[in-house]
Amino acid sequence: MSEAVGRLVAVVDALRQHCPWTRALTHEELTEYLVEEAYEALEAIESGAPEAELRGELGDVLFQVVLHAAIADGRGAFSLDDVAETITAKMLRRNPHVFTPDGRLRPPEELASVTVEQIERQWERIKAEEKRALAADERGGTAGSTDDAADPAQSVFAELPAHLPALAAAAKAVDRAARRDPDPLVAERSAAAAPTPGEPGAAAADPLADETALGAHLFELAARARRAGLDPERALRRHLAVRAGRVG
């Protein structure tokens, strides 16, 4: 741990010990601040804010991480070191094109022999394997069977964070599906020869018939945007910022 990060941890520990307000905070009470700080960092990035402003916003996000870890450490659950070890182990597992199974960097000739598309598909495959293994552990069975096989398209959506903004969630679902072979959303659309308004995988004939139809239409629009290389969430966010006069 660097001296600067160690100092931040010490400050948070002191606040937890001597500040009644900070000491009383829980994970649940901090959720709104975590989301707020993340969006402020996002705004700094998208608005082209000065580097000093972005540095400050990222510091606010880091403070949230350290504070959550301190709360967990206080009840003996896990520490900031545990958080760092967990994400490090995850990156080593998810990037076998860079690291060997024992965590060493692969030789240069191996590092140059993989494409971005292969990396993305590899990430999704390893992630799915981890989820199957975790589910098997929870069931006390084997990792060979999974409910995802019954409806591959549904599994893409089931993995999304529940609180992700709707347009961002739709775009992420399309991205994740595209990394699978075959793409379950493409297969779903191909199977819907005569779609019924509001059915999954098909836009309604009248997108304004009701909210179900509108939802299907918005998803199809988001899917088309992602396949064209556009980010629908960022596009709408920028449009609103322009209308509000925050960006030119």
Automatic annotation (TrEMBL):
Keywords: Hydrolase. Residues 26-99 form the NTP pyrophosphohydrolase MazG-like domain. Residues 179-208 are annotated as: Disordered. GO terms for biological process: dATP catabolic process; dGTP catabolic process; dTTP catabolic process; dUTP catabolic process; TTP catabolic process; UTP catabolic process. InterPro entries: MazG-like_dom (IPR004518), NTP-PPase_MazG-like_N (IPR048015), NTP_PyrPHydrolase_MazG (IPR011551). It is an enzyme of class 3 (hydrolase). Coiled coil: none annotated. Residues 184-208 have a biased composition (Low complexity). Pfam families: MazG. Signal peptide: none annotated. GO terms for molecular function: ITP diphosphatase activity. Its EC number is 3.6.1.66. This is XTP/dITP diphosphohydrolase. It comes from Micrococcus cohnii. The lineage of its organism: Bacteria, Bacillati, Actinomycetota, Actinomycetes, Micrococcales.
